[in-house]
Amino acid sequence: MSFLLKIYKPALTKALEFKKTVITISLALLIVAFFIFQNMGGEFIPQLDEGDYAVEVTMMPGTSLTQMVETGKAVMQKVLQEFPDEVATTTGKIGTSEIPTDPMSVEEMDMVLTMKPREKWKKCTDKEDFETQLDAVLQKIPGINTSIQQPIAMRFNELMTGAKTDVIVKVLGNDLDKLASIANTIEEKIKNKFQPQA
Description:
By secondary structure, the chain is α+β, with helices and mostly antiparallel strands. The chain has helices at 2-17, 19-38, 65-82, 127-139, 151-161, 176-194; strands spanning 53-58, 87-94, 108-115, 145-149.
């Protein structure tokens, strides 16, 4: 602290001698910083390219563990079959382990896709193309809902918001019928707004 005070005291004394100059420079820097801030991107943490994928697969509440295991195996086999040059291995985790660090129900599965090097890809041209094609393949499997994420990003989202996806809509209330109706309305509006028109 003594060393810092030896630097700080003379600097403060000089600044007090030239009050108007210091204030003018400070205001100028503040205005410049404001304009730089206005032109910055909206994301302070850019989207990471982790290389691998984490796909959340969910089925209807009340689905048995046996059915979830069978469906999970079918989903993983389908992904390996459709993307032999892109996906190296698939691993699925259903439910909660004995140490409940990641509580999940038996109708939820986290499927991790370990990817092959990009230069070996044949069916997909890049990351975005793979995600689009993977989503199209998963949409054809009946009885499941999926969310395509990256492993670290998914865990980060879960810690921050309690949900594994980047964007969520929470509808709260006591009337289940009304909540279901509102959720269906929201789903239709989102589909109409963001799905490409044929």
